[in-house]
Amino acid sequence: MVRRHAFTLVELLVVIAVVGLLLALLLPAVQAARETARRGQCTNNLKQMGLACQSYHDSLMSFPPGYCASISYVDGQTDTTPGWGWAAFILPQIEQCAVKGNIHFSLPVEDPRNNPAVQSNIGVYLCPSDSLPPRPFTIPDGAGNPLAVAAPSSYAGCIGGDSSGVSDATGLGIFYRNSGTRISDVRDGTSTTILVGEKAWANAQGVWAGAVNRGVCLRGKYNPCPANGAAWDPAPALVLSHSHLNNPLTDPDGGLDDFSSNHVAGSNFVFADASVHFIRSVTADGSQGGYTSESIVFQALGTRAGHEVVPGDWAQ
Predict the structure, then answer these.
(1) In the chain, what is the greatest distance between 2 CA atoms, to the nearest angstrom?
(2) 3-state secondary structure 21-51
(3) Whole-model pTM?
């Protein structure tokens, strides 16, 4: 009689334990490698935006406006028409001429005739680490009434530090309402002045097209700020942020006017010289309500002519 050799129960359990241990060691490494690749793609996206803005500047002698408004300033909420944002103006420079060809710039972003363009997903404006909607999403007003359906964005232009509100008439950064900043205006130096940074759609639901008049920027599904904070921010927050906090965890306005990402410990930013840097998270203000040293440096990087002294180790 031929004896069949089989695993004992103990041997089987040992094999399962070894395989489980190997998987436990392998999966984090695989996930880390994937995130490294995604972060690299995000860096490339921002590099393209930086070069596109420089090309725009070469042609028109200024950077594009943060968003364009044809009526007098009232409150930065009900007066943003037509509202087209900085990302819409550089479409030709990122090889999206077909999308720009569908834009009627004299009409509001939310005009139905602009739907083919506004609802177009553009890869350069989407960070692969972001948790994005599967299709264009609805932008409401503050009462929840739908105003437009638009494609998402993972990035926002910088309007300045905390003293520059996204819905202000002007800002101390490169992008703001009807801005036309020239490189000669960037007196702090193009290598230390933020142009565009990450603003995770998962935290704050932004768009690339522009500031929809009376529209609001809502909290994303994974916004980490306490739920008792603000539920929305005015229309300019759809395309602009200020360099106050980076990946905020506690902020009364829900971090809707700040930069954020789904990367670990920081976010990517492109500067006015088209260089891209990863900046460490600034998650909250000081315990006594004052700015932290990290926030002070971050705010200095957001201004174009603040004459602040920036330490040499500001970038990771």
Answers:
(1) 98
(2) HHHHHHHHHHHHHHHHHHHHHHHHHHHHHHH
(3) 0.90
